[in-house]
Amino acid sequence: xxxxxxxxxxxxxxxxxxxxxxxxxxxxxxxxxxxxxxxxxxxxxxxxxxxxxxxxxxxxxxxxxxxxxxxxxxxxxxxxxxxxxxxxxxxxxxxxxxxxxxxxxxxxxxxxxxxxxxxxxxxxxxxxxxxxxxxxxxxxxxxxxxxxxxxxxxxxxxxxxxxxxxxxxxxxxxxxxxxxxxxxxxxxxxxxxxxxxxxxxxxxxxxxxxxxxxxxxxxxxxxxxxxxxxxxxxxxxxxxxxxxxxxxxxxxxxxxxxxxxxxxxxxxxxxxxxxxxxxxxxxxxxxxxxxxxxxxxxxxxxxxxxxxxxxxxxxxxxxxxxxxxxxxxxxxxxxxx
Length: 337
Ligand code: NAD
Ligand code: WQD
Hints:
It is built from 11 helices and 14 strands. It is an alpha/beta fold. The protein has a domain at 2-181 and 231-261: 3-Layer(aba) Sandwich (Rossmann fold), CATH 3.40.50. α6 (147-165) links the parallel β5 and β6. The longest helix has 21 residues, at 93-113. Residues 84, 86, 124, 126, 178, 197-199, 202, 214-217, 228, 230, 268, 291, 294 line the site of UDP-4-deoxy-4-formamido-beta-L-arabinopyranose. Residues 6-7, 9-13, 31-36, 58-60, 80-84, 99, 103, 122, 124, 176, 179 line the site of nicotinamide-adenine-dinucleotide.
């Protein structure tokens, strides 16, 4: 019995594959490499010392999915595959709805046809939109404010409807907060294309000398130091959450949602300072205007995952910065194949 990991060559997928393989799971990765490199999977293989199957292909390809579910004995799916850049989703909404929503529907149709009804889906705290209640519990109102966020919300709804129509399904929706960090080996990590959109890869690239300074998007928020507060979570803790979710699928949980965050907020200034302490590198910055759509603060109430999955984040901001720096300094150009 194997776990099908869609998007397994990506940032979170590659870290999760390492932990799945180390825990003894058989793994089949399906990824079209649209936002990742085969080299990440070669490194997953070297870290874990385990072999696994890789199929280069698209979740929109129904014939390919049919073959995958025929050729391998899959009993559950972890579904990471998707596009994730908020700004790009505003510029190219159809690309996002097609790839993420139509792609997920195609995957779920293939699962239904082959009677594979266990799924862990990568959702996002972005489905909450701008919430005025902190920390954010799973029962908070949903209201994504950009096309990317709406794809996540729609896929959640589709999975809830599938479960309502057939209680034989088991669906776990994981809403990640802000994933950062890297495997402690420094062999795999986040490798964004072009100039990073997100804070941690941006800071890392300034630290390594690829970018000049960090633009801080506003210091006039109603937060203690004026900069935005987020719930950063180490990607190794996140990967561990997926293993806990897979175990939970065995208890026939129905369709359930969990926040994966630490419950602690960190400001942009605090993150820059922590990165300086972890790397020893000066991080020049300048304060610019706010980025449209950014909330002042966003952090999780992760107590449901603690209670029901037996999962809690163990790594703090220093480890997140140390491991991001370890990856970035060993791989200044990212994967180089
Ligand atoms: P990533 O881009 O590194 O990984 C996604 C992978 O999916 C890539 O390897 C890409 O090549 C693949 N992919 C995309 N479309 C595909 C398709 N049609 N068919 C096959 N493969 C396809 O992103 P990530 O950071 O690892 O995120 C993984 C998942 O978690 C995504 O669904 C993302 O939306 C979600 N998520 C990410 C974050 C974050 O900040 N990184 C936060 C919340 C949720
Ligand atoms: C964090 C903080 C910025 C960059 C995004 C997506 C979300 C989810 C996670 C997938 C904010 C500030 C940032 C910079 C800055 N992804 N910042 N300078 O916006 O919380 O979440 O990634 O689901 O959907 O929106 O993360 O890292 O971009 O920003 O000052 O160059 O850093 O204003 O306060 P965000 P981020």
